[in-house]
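User:
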Amino acid sequence: MIDFHFETDFELRDEDRYVEWVRHIINSEDNEVGELSFVFCDDTFLLEINQKFLGHDTLTDVITFDYSDDGVVSGDVFISIERLKENSDIFDCKLLDELQRVMAHGVLHLLGYDDKSEGDLREMRAKEEEKMKLFHVEHD
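Assistant: Predicted structure:
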């Protein structure tokens, strides 16, 4: 089950399309969908989570809590809409493209991809691009 929760006035249009896309990302890596929640929030909400649970006192665009087990992908993905807006300005891209990149990034963390080293980050970026392209593919 894939759910969306909103702690800000952001609205996700066509939620069913995003559900199918996320499902397709997970299935494309030979995993199954478990319980997955996306929480769209503001900087303050995400900063509090970052401080309380991760001990980091910095703003970020996404935090992922992984509850996956034995090929069944489950977790919570928290996304700051304020960071998405700033990132889309910085990288000169559409807000929806940045949303898809960050959503894919969170799911990729749940699939076991990391971004701590230079090599891991290059692989993560390539996977983000690959998975973003799946959004425009018709799914069964």
